[in-house]
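ok new one. same drill as before - structure tokens go in, u give me an amino acid for every spot. 206 of them this time. try not to just spam alanines like last time pls lmao
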């Protein structure tokens, strides 16, 4: 026995079309609504990023300060280590002692791998100057009483070279400094790696 439909063909088509349209706009509303929520969340949580190379970080009071390879030594600050503010570099003018005699081929204010530390109330920043692929390099040091640029005591004082390596004479490279204080309180400078390995030299107490 043949079954008969309750609806005529055109009525059935209209119902199917209406159902499909309803499903389409319902899903579209859900997708748009979800995307809108995600967009709001992204806007609220998107951090202020700061690209960096060879970073070294230290905290003073409620602020973190990040020092890195860059022109004059790049500096950034943050109170949460998520959102960063670019600060003025440590050096804004070329260092007089960085010349073709000590560091031939160095580009002006091209300063690498700073290391920041606090010792007896003074901030020390060790840094390296070189030319890529060569071991005609040097490590210098600068000091400051504070890292807060708004402080009247804020001023970087450069003390010149601490140690340098000479091509054809030394099998090590005076780059990538890191200050270490041993158990007896003696200061050491860890350096090198891009040549014959990591070296260590003892520093004077001052």
């Amino acid at each position: 026995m043949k079954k008969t439909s309750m609806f005529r063909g055109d009525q059935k088509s209209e119902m199917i079309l209406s159902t499909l349209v309803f499903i389409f706009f319902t899903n579209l509303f859900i997708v748009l609504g979800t995307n809108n929520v995600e967009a709001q969340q992204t806007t609220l949580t998107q951090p202020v990023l700061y690209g960096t190379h060879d970073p070294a970080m230290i905290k003073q009071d409620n602020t973190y300060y990040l020092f890195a390879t860059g022109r004059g030594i790049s500096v950034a600050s943050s109170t949460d280590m998520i959102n960063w503010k670019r600060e003025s570099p440590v050096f804004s003018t070329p260092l007089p002692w960085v010349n073709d005699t000590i560091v031939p081929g160095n580009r002006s204010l091209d300063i690498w791998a700073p290391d920041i530390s606090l010792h007896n109330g003074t901030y020390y920043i060790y840094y390296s100057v070189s030319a890529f692929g060569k071991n005609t390099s040097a490590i210098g040091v600068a000091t400051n009483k504070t890292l807060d640029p708004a402080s009247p005591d804020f001023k970087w004082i450069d003390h010149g070279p601490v140690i340098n390596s000479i091509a054809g004479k030394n099998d090590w490279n005076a780059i990538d400094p890191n200050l270490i204080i041993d158990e007896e309180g003696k200061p050491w400078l860890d350096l090198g790696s891009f040549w014959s390995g990591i070296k260590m030299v003892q520093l004077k107490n001052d």
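The mean pLDDT is 83. and btw The first strand starts at residue 56 and ends at 60.
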